[in-house]
Specification:
heterodimer; A: 504 residues; alpha/beta; five-stranded parallel β-sheet; four-stranded parallel β-sheet; 13 strands; globular; B: 475 residues; six-stranded mixed β-sheet; 45% helix
């Protein structure tokens, strides 16, 4: 039997019949004349429009930013048997879960206390009490990590008092750890939510645990959405023979093997290890901006040495290994040195295609700093750097970094700006390539600048997050993503010319 | 009471045992064994009631219903997520309400536009900022036909007066500025958001559009959000029937179409849940009758074509018959190809809107049986329409939790599950074939004669993918 040809939306709506239907529908749409639409479209590409666009103060258009509780539940999920528990309206949790599902293509469990109008009037205590009881009974967590939505924050729910009441009333066991963090959506972004929750969890779980030094180091990855990075950091430190605790280890949560069984708590940092983190020799953060408060707390309250060593790009990875070597006294093994050699070799092989290429970048502060550093190492030129979640400190860090290399001379940093600002820049000062998350594909469409997908969220490509972005292995992946996008684009542009080369 | 019903009831009781007492009593009201006859009094579920805290409901909020479902797809209006940054981010182009237009110029569907509330807005109020934001938008997007202000939780809690701002600015701009009080804490689910959004359509745009002439065949297509192009596939059929679709609500809709639906002779309602309110209003105020229909799968399509045609003259009736004659062989070929591969397979559905009942017929056309179905945010009237569609003893679930879905899956052993993104990957881990039935798993359309072949292909690839067999299960 001849198989039917099935046409879905990708083909169907390009057919003549549908095109005619769309034309007929215009009769009812009261549309603008085509000339008017084209005129405005052209105007949006001008310097004049850019100025107007950059004048706006009160509205964000296509921002690369999301809210605190997302970071909080992400952080919480990486601890053994921990159920993220969000005090507030329920739609938020549905959204957080969906967002993480779409990026990782993995399940993600989190609890909401489903607050509604009555809670707005009377406060959310009853929701918290019933929520804790139900969540504990039904889902058997070893820890419930509480964060908040803007609703609970606006009405001023007192988490500390509520949790105490819950224990007094016996709805949860007295010894169940219930750390909490206030994570209002109208302050900061998910990087701050991560930070606040991490601090909340560590301060709760390490209370009274100060004892003998355990000789380990703590690693805090930060809001890192590359599962490959978690596997990579463990691999690197194992090769080096470093005894460490990864705080919070989300690798199993967002990358669990398929065994035909759904596990609600597939892994995470063991709670005993997390509790013992207070006795470590030092704490190393792999991101700066998502760990500011936590690192400050660790330094001041634990009296621990703290280092921020984000290992993206060659020099940053060098600094990471030097730093870890110094605090642990372990030498950098030959195996790592060989990996470095391979990464550098890959960069040298590919450099002709990246050298002098101009880039626009949009993303999270730590990833951007790593990418700027890496691109300049390759001879690439970062031009527009847009960081919706960036603050003054980030701006300063980014400019300092750019000033370290002649390739950074053109770089301009835009904090608090969004992808609609970037759209203007890409028309008035065009670049060769764009680096950003999946939503940046709209910029690719509008400006025709090819997109290299690095960042969060990545919804429209599969498995990119499984590859490390950190370490020397991460360097090889970055080279791969960048240079092969450059080469793909070169093929597209030369397809009907003699330059359509096979060997490059 | 039949054995099938008794057995299902027993299973439900077992599943409920894990709950603390209060939650168990509540959840018991939301789970039932189906009785298609409607005789059995204990077989009716309670619905549209607050979710229990802490049980992991799948539900969303009023904002999701108003922004994500009803207003979001309106293409030439700017939809502002008014409040903190998250809500607009997480709902950004997630529902695939396809539209034609030049985004950012004359249409705005795939954009995320937000006032990004900061602490100062909470303390001092956000009205001033909103006023300024609307002016900035008007400058940057001069072709916008309207602006919707979709409020998020804090806006209602701090007592902002977005209606006053809207009124003032609408006067200045001469376009509709629509304040939608869809704060997420209102109501119990997405459902109230639909209702609130319907009311704002009524109050701000209904009856205000331009339509030069009318004909006896004018209809409005209501409650089709053009997910993966569904509304386009439906429109194609209605046009072929000889009807003139003057408005599409709200997939690929323009503000003008929201305004002229009152000139329709008949409102055709696909998603009853999200848009029955405005249809009732148009019936009362404008005397426009409305009829529910179902364009999933040939059986329901044929019935629906005849049902719709019955409101019109013989020309339309004849056209409907001609269409059935023309497309039946095409549909038969689809069934012939896929039915042997899907016959006897059991399906569990847990979705929203119209799908828990409307897709049952399409599965049955392929020889599949829906053994459990439920709604995230259904009401009593949805369930009443569902009972007769389902077999006796099937599980009916209202506002199911992660725990319940997992337990029912273990016990019912469906061959595939149709639910949402939050459920998808836990089913993948369980090794149970799964299809997202909110977004069609990025496929579609599923409506109409063009949609059914895609539906059949997708269900086949779900159930019969060789990847499921690769899982090495623990024994």
């Amino acid at each position: 039997m001849k198989l039917l040809k099935i046409r879905d939306h990708n083909e169907l709506f390009q057919e003549q019949e549908y095109c005619e239907q769309f034309e007929r529908k215009r009769e009812f749409e009261d549309p603008w004349p085509a000339e008017k639409v084209n005129e405005v479209a052209e105007w949006t590409k001008t310097e004049e429009y850019k100025e107007l666009n950059f004048k706006r103060q009160n509205i964000k258009i296509n921002p690369a930013k999301a809210c605190q509780p997302l970071g909080a539940i992400f952080c919480a999920s990486g601890f053994e048997g921990t159920m993220p528990f969000v005090q507030g309206a329920q739609g938020c949790v549905a959204y957080f879960r969906s967002h993480l599902n779409r990026h990782f293509k993995e399940p993600f469990a989190a609890i909401s206390t489903s607050m509604t109008e009555d809670a707005a009037v009377f406060g959310g205590l009853n929701n918290m009490l019933e929520g804790l009881e139900n969540a504990y009974t039904l889902y058997h967590p070893k820890m419930l990590a509480v964060s908040t939505t803007c609703m609970a924050e606006v009405i001023g729910d007192d988490l500390n008092a509520y949790i105490r009441t819950a224990r007094e009333k016996g709805v949860i066991p007295k010894d169940l750890p219930v750390p909490f963090a206030h994570t209002p959506s109208f302050v900061g972004s998910y990087i701050n939510g991560y930070d606040n929750m991490m601090k909340g969890i560590l301060s709760t779980i390490t209370a009274g645990k100060k004892g003998e030094p355990n000789g380990k180091i703590n690693i805090i990855p930060g809001f890192d959405t590359y599962t490959g990075d978690y596997h990579e950091i463990k691999r690197m430190l194992k090769i080096m023979g470093v005894d460490f605790t990864l705080l919070s280890d989300v690798s199993d949560i967002f990358d669990s093997p398929n065994t035909g069984e759904y596990k609600l708590y597939p892994g995470g940092t063991p709670l005993v290890d997390a509790a013992d983190s207070i006795n470590a020799k030092a704490t190393v953060a792999l991101q700066k901006y998502s760990t500011l408060k936590t690192m400050d707390y660790i330094k001041k309250e634990w009296n621990q040495q703290t280092l921020v060593l984000p290992p993206i790009g060659v020099k940053n990875t060098d600094a990471f290994f030097d730093g870890v070597s110094k605090i642990t006294g372990k030498p950098i093994p030959k195996e790592i040195e060989d990996e470095r050699g391979r990464a550098v070799d890959a960069m040298i092989d590919s450099h002709p295609y990246v050298h002098g290429k101009r880039f626009a970048l949009v993303g999270d502060p730590d990833m951007l700093l790593g990418l700027i550093s890496f691109l300049m190492e390759m001879g690439g030129v970062p031009v527009h750097i847009v960081c919706t979640m960036g603050d003054k400190k980030f701006e300063e860090d980014a400019y300092n970094l750019l000033s370290e290399s002649p390739f950074g001379a053109e770089g301009k940093v835009y904090i608090g700006k969004d992808m609609w600002h970037l759209r203007s820049l890409m028309f008035t000062e065009p670049v060769d390539f764009l680096v950003g998350n999946s939503y940046a594909k709209f910029l690719w469409r509008d400006a025709g600048t090819p997109l290299i997908r690095i960042g969060f969220p990545l919804f429209d490509r599969h498995h990119l997050h499984r590859y490390p972005s950190i370490g020397y292995q991460g360097v090889i992946n970055l080279v791969n993503w960048v240079v092969n996008t450059v080469l793909d684009e070169m093929d597209r542009k030369t397809i009907n010319t003699t330059s359509f080369d096979v060997i490059r | 009471m039949s054995t099938a019903i008794k057995e299902t009831q027993k299973m439900i009781e077992e599943v409920l045992e894990a709950y603390p007492e209060k939650a168990r009593k509540d959840r018991a009201k939301h789970l039932a064994a189906n009785d298609p006859s409607g005789q059995c009094s204990t077989c009716q579920v309670k619905s549209n009631i607050k979710s229990r805290p802490g049980v992991m409901t799948v539900r969303g909020c009023a904002y999701a219903g108003a922004k994500g479902v009803v207003w979001g797809p309106v293409k030439d209006q700017i939809t502002v997520s008014h409040g903190p940054i998250g809500c607009g981010q997480y709902s950004w182009w997630a529902r695939r309400n396809y539209y034609n237009g030049q985004t950012g110029i004359d249409t705005f569907g795939t954009m995320h536009i937000t006032t990004d509330f900061q602490e100062k807005d909470i303390v001092y109020g956000g009205d001033k900022g909103l006023d300024a934001a609307l002016h900035e938008l008007k400058e940057l997007f001069p072709l916008a036909k309207g602006i919707g202000i979709l409020s998020e939780c804090p806006v209602g809690l701090i007592g902002d007066d977005i209606e006053a701002v809207s009124k003032k600015v609408a006067k200045e701009f001469g376009i509709p500025i629509v304040p939608v009080r869809c704060e997420g804490f209102r109501g119990v689910s997405q459902s109230l958001g639909h209702h609130i959004a319907n009311d704002t359509i009524r109050d701000y745009v209904l009856g205000k559009g331009k339509l030069e002439k009318t004909t006896p065949y004018d209809v409005a297509l209501i409650g089709d959000y053009n997910i993966g192009g569904d509304a386009w596939a439906s429109r194609k059929m209605l046009e072929e029937m000889g009807l003139r679709v003057i408005a599409q609500w709200t997939g690929d809709a323009s503000v003008n179409e929201l305004g002229i639906a009152t000139k329709a002779k008949l409102n055709l309602v696909h998603c009853y849940r999200s848009m029955n309110y405005i249809c009732r209003h148009m019936e009362e105020e404008y005397g426009i009758p409305w009829v529910e229909f179902n364009f999933f799968g040939p059986t329901k399509i044929y019935q629906s074509l005849r049902k719709i045609a019955s409101y019109f003259d013989n020309t339309i009736k004849e056209n409907a018959e001609k269409m059935i004659e023309k497309y039946k062989p095409v549909m038969d070929a689809v069934v012939e190809q896929y039915k042997p591969r899907l016959e006897g397979k059991k399906v569990m559905l847990y979705v929203g809107g119209l799908r828990p009942r409307h897709t049952v017929g399409a599965y049955e056309d392929l020889g599949m049986e829906v053994v459990a179905s439920g709604y995230e945010f259904g009401h009593n009237d949805d369930y009443k329409r569902t009972y007769p569609e389902m077999k006796e003893g099937a599980v009916i679930m209202d506002d199911a939790t992660l725990y319940e879905l997992e337990e029912f899956t273990r016990r019912l052993r469906p061959d595939m599950v149709g639910s949402g993104i939050k459920e998808k990957y836990s089913y993948h881990k369980m090794g149970v074939p799964f299809r997202q039935m909110h977004s069609w798993d990025y496929s579609g359309p599923y409506h109409g004669f063009d949609g059914f072949p895609v539906f059949a292909r997708d269900m086949d690839m779900t159930v019969n993918s060789p990847t499921w067999d690769l899982i090495r299960r623990k024994r």
